[in-house]
Design brief:
The protein has about 350 residues and is α/β, with parallel strands linked by helices. The protein has 15 helices and 13 strands. The protein has two domains: about 180 residues, 3-Layer(aba) Sandwich (Rossmann fold); about 160 residues, 3-Layer(aba) Sandwich (Rossmann fold), CATH 3.40.50.
């Protein structure tokens, strides 16, 4: 089958899907909607995947680009002659395909499109309904996304839900020599953008670190709020206990998890968080916001904790409680790893994408 995989950009998740599709019998073409110059994935496309050059893919796409991109997308479709188009996020790549009139379309939710972007304005709300109405099937990563898709008009029997999962061989449990065995290390891996709530983590760290001198915080990534985050930590007099490695390679990422005592996220919007699954696979318990996507993975006191979304004081309290219970963390980490093995194995989960393709081709 000839498949056109149309995504917003080239991320770690795109690399994962395309690498898995490259191992199938399908002939797969890759189309990139945006490209802003920021390195999102440092590994090249699998050689079996054919990237299509077109009018998009060079800079962030805006609504004013819509007509030009739609016209060129129709040219791409005539050129590639796909049997099926796999596209997401909903209001961007999938919406353009729906506007083109192509069928069958498999829309893939990226979580934030149905959890956040649909609420931005009435047009995006309409675009969501339009796209799902013109989708032959839809893929989502958790039940929360499934229920939202149904509420926007997608047929339940045409939705395939599976966690995108992770490579359990790459993200695994290993004992590392600790550079400072006396320190208690917190790790965040999300970007420095408002949706990810890194400011919430910074404020909570200021509170908790004043009570626990051995507390350390590592913030991977970067983003538009970088200066503001550093300012919070400077004013709070804990900057010397905060570390900013920047963007790290996929190959280096597991060691950051393994050197942490706790994984922390304050993201205001998540379906199934891949970062959370990576931490679990490395045997690291987590503290994450009490939002629907996280509730599908966290069992309180068994593999992690929840805190009210956006509440730095509450997050600090949970961090301090976790430190007081640190003798329980190894067993919590083992339970986290077992859960990842049971539900987050990419090798087991990926074949469900073929089910979505089969539904679309009916």
């Amino acid at each position: 089958m000839r498949i056109l995989y149309f995504s917003r950009d080239y991320t770690t998740h795109d690399h994962r899907f395309l690498s898995a599709l490259a191992k199938t019998s399908h002939q797969v073409y890759y189309l990139r909607l945006e490209g802003g110059g920021q390195v999102l994935e440092d590994r090249p496309l699998p050689p079996e995947i054919k990237q299509v050059q077109w009018a998009g893919g060079n800079h962030p796409a805006t609504l004013k680009d819509g007509f030009r991109l739609l016209d060129d997308l129709r040219k791409v479709i005539r050129q590639v002659k796909p049997d099926l188009i796999h596209a997401g996020p909903i209001q961007r790549s999938a919406f353009l395909v729906a506007l083109s009139g192509f069928h069958p379309l498999v829309s893939m939710s990226w979580g934030y499109d149905l959890l956040h972007d649909v609420q931005i304005n009435p047009f995006w709300h309409w675009a969501t309904r339009f796209t799902l109405r013109h989708s032959a099937a839809m893929v989502g990563d958790c039940d929360t996304i499934r229920q939202l898709a149904i509420s926007y008009g997608m047929q339940d029997d045409r939705i395939v839900t599976f966690p995108w999962g992770i490579d359990l061989q790459h993200f695994n449990v290993k004992t590392l020599p600790r550079s400072n065995a006396e320190a208690f290390n917190l790790l965040s891996t999300r970007g420095f953008e408002p949706i990810y709530g890194i400011d919430v983590i910074a404020r909570a760290f200021v509170i908790a670190a004043r009570k626990r001198p051995n507390l350390r915080l590592t913030l991977l990534g970067n983003g538009s709020q970088s200066a503001a985050i550093r300012q919070i930590l400077l004013i709070g007099a804990v900057y010397d206990r905060s570390f900013f490695p920047g963007h790290v390679s996929f190959s280096a990422l597991p060691d950051y998890y393994r050197n942490a005592d706790l994984y922390i996220s304050a993201s205001h919007s998540d379906g199934t968080s891949i970062s959370l699954l990576e931490a679990f696979a490395c045997g690291i318990p987590a503290i994450v916001p009490d939002i629907p996507g996280n509730r599908e993975w966290i069992t309180l006191g068994e593999n992690g904790w929840l805190f009210p979304d956006g509440d730095s004081d509450a997050l600090a309290t949970v961090i301090l409680n976790a430190i007081d219970q640190q003798q329980n963390l190894p067993e919590m980490g083992r339970k986290a790893r077992r859960l990842a093995e049971e539900r987050a194995d990419w090798e087991k989960n990926f074949p469900l994408l073929e089910k979505a393709y089969a539904i679309a081709m009916e």
